[in-house]
Amino acid sequence: MPIIRALCFTGSIVSDLDKFIKQINQLTEPARRISQQIDKVIPPYVQKLNQTFAPLRHQANVLSKLYNPLFEQVHSLIQKTATAAKEWQTARKADVTVMAENGWYPNWFTFFYQPDQEPNSLDELMVMHLEENWDDLTAKIIELCPNREHLLKTAFRLHEEGNYIAAIPLFFSQADGICCEVLKRFLFTGNDTNEKLDTLIENGELEVNMLLDVFLEPFKLTNHHNAGISKASVAHKKKAPNRNGILHGHRKHLDYGTRINSLKCFSLLAFTVYTVKEMVSGK
User: Fold this and answer.
1) Quick one: which of 121, 131, 74 has its CA closest to 99?
2) How would you label 44-73 residue by residue, b for 16+ Cβ within 10 Å and e otherwise?
3) Contact at 8 Å (CB) between 161 and 154?
4) Residue 283: which residues within 8 A CB-CB, separation 6 or more?
5) Over 90: is that where the pLDDT of 31 sits?
6) Rounded to whole angstroms, how far apart are CA atoms 281 and 76?
7) What is the pLDDT of residues 178-195, one digit of tens each?
8) How far is 201 from 185, CA to CA, in rounded Å?
9) b vs e for 110-140, b when ≥16 Cβ sit within 10 Å of the residue's Cβ?
10) What is the C-alpha separation between 47 and 175, in angstroms, rounded?
11) Which pLDDT tens digit goes with each residue over 221-231?
């Protein structure tokens, strides 16, 4: 009896389940029909899309195979160019350091100058460079400093006439004044100029590119032109004329009036005008 009752109970459950399934089928019939219609429509549509885009995919694959080597070459070239630029910058910083240590400073044309004959020394190279580019350099300096034209032309004429004793103090004073005119700091006053440039950079007022970074390097270096008067040995004087000794008329610095000293002071003037007037102030 228990078994029969159990079977009857089970049969009742199965009967109820059949009814439930039929109800579900009735309720879901509309959805199934929609799904069937979609199944009939979508595959041909997808097929048409595939047929439409197949040529484009093919062309894309062809272009990819064709231009991938070019893209790789361009990427490689960009990397090589960036590396070469960094190496150039590092080399030029080393150059200006050596130049400044020997009383010379770069200008607009220095790194592009190609001498007709091989120089035997840095002094010889810079003398050749400055004398060959003299007209262009003096014109650029006057163009950027028109308010000082009368003083600058006098200094240039004195140098051209061989009056180096008079030209050198003018070169010194004008370089100092031009720096102060733009940066409100005198060129030869401690580290004030370098600190002012650092402040401009930190405040975002001065954007440093690869070339400007090179030309700012001398401002960070100990400058022979602002050495103390006591630096009066032959070795010190060979490096650069002593501004303090010359402008104060010190007895140990009365022998400064040479062509090479005048050109060194002129190189400082040209450097200051190019860096401060053109690169920093953007004139």
Assistant:
1) 121
2) eeeeeeeeeeeeeeeeeeeeeeeeeeeeee
3) no
4) 144, 277
5) no
6) 36
7) 999 999 888 877 678 888
8) 16
9) beeeeeeeeeeeebebbbebbeebeeebbeb
10) 78
11) 776 666 788 88
What is the phi/psi pair of residue 43, to 5°?
Answer: -55, -45
Q: Token pair for residue 240?
A: 């650069």
pLDDT at 37: 55
Give CA–CA dist 211/279, Å, rounded.
Answer: 9
Highest-pLDDT range among 25-29, 57-61, 67-71, 192-196: 192-196
> Up-side HSE of residue 84: CA atoms within 13 Å toward CB?
6
Contact present, 213 and 89 (Cβ < 8 Å)? yes
Report how far residue 265's alpha carbon sits from residue 268's, in angstroms, rounded to the nearest whole number. Answer: 5
Angle formed by the axes of helices 122-132 and 2-101, to 10°?
Answer: 90
Q: Using pLDDT thresholds of 50, 70 and 90, give the confidence band for residue 64.
A: low
Q: What is the model's pTM?
A: 0.72
DSSP string spanning the chain? -HHHHHHHHHHHHHHHHHHHHHHHHHHHHHHHHHHHHHHHHHHHHHHHHHHHHHHHHHHHHHHHHHHHHHHHHHHHHHHHHHHHHHHHHHHHHHHHHHHHHTT----TTGGG---SS--SSHHHHHHHHHHHTHHHHHHHHHHH-GGGHHHHHHHHHHHHTT-HHHHHHHHHHHHHHHHHHHHSS-TTSTTHHHHHHHHHHHTTSS---HHHHHHTGGGGSPPGGG--TT--SHHHHHH---HHHHHTT-GGG-----HHHHHHHHHHHHHHIIIIIIIIS--
For residues 271 and 178, the answer to whether their CB atoms sit within 8 Å is no
